[in-house]
Amino acid sequence: MAFKVSQIVSANSFNVSPEWRIWKLRAGGSSVVINNFNVPDKHANRAEYNLVKEKLANLLQYKTVELKPPFSFSKKKELMCDVLLDGVHINELIPECKPQANFISETTTEHSLNETNQENSSSE
Questions:
Q1: What distance lies between CA 77 and its chain's CA centroid?
Q2: Which helix (DSSP H) or strand (DSSP E) does residue 2 occupy?
Q3: Is residue 4 over pLDDT 90?
Q4: How far apart are alpha carbons 53 and 120 in whole angstroms?
Q5: Averaged over 1-21, what is the pLDDT?
Q6: pLDDT score of 105
Q7: Which end of the chain offers a freer environment for a tag, N or C, measured as fewer CB atoms within 10 Å?
Q8: C-alpha 97: how far from its chain's center?
Q9: Could you give the CA distance from residue 38 to residue 91 in angstroms, rounded to a whole number?
Q10: Cis-peptide into 70, omega within 30 deg
Q11: Residue 25 to residues 48, 65, 109: CA-CA distances in angstroms?
Q12: Euclidean distance between the first and final Cα of the chain, in Å?
């Protein structure tokens, strides 16, 4: 499903509109964290962190993105998922944030936004 990026929050997270919903899990919100997107530590290397945040803003601010599985949630209840712009994963567009080959995602839950949004539409 397509969502418009309304605000860049950090070097790897942003807010979207409309809010995402995963009805089976009774979860929803506007905060999204990009899966498989390694950013510099904000405190150890502020200049590199800010550069990545600026690149993310230039790419995504007010653009329409797709949120794709696998879906999981951060401790702050942010949706963690793959993010595509024009069909391309964000880590392909900012290669310095591409994960190493041995990166393993800590995904705990997989659900489809399309599937769950369809369920909500039929129950209204």
A1: 12
A2: strand 2-8
A3: yes
A4: 34
A5: 95
A6: 43
A7: C
A8: 14
A9: 8
A10: yes
A11: 36, 22, 9
A12: 19
4: which 2 tokens? 């418009």
Structure tokens at 39: 């950013």
Q: pLDDT digits over 43-76, tens only?
A: 899 999 999 999 999 999 999 999 999 889 888 8
Cα 118 from chain centre:
21
Q: How far is CA 119 from CA 9, 23, 45, 53, 78, in A?
A: 30, 8, 44, 35, 21
> Rounded to whole angstroms, how far apart are CA atoms 2 and 5?
10
CA–CA gap between residue 70 and residue 110 (Å, rounded): 5
* pLDDT tens sequence across 76-119: 889 999 999 999 999 899 988 888 644 444 444 445 565 545 44
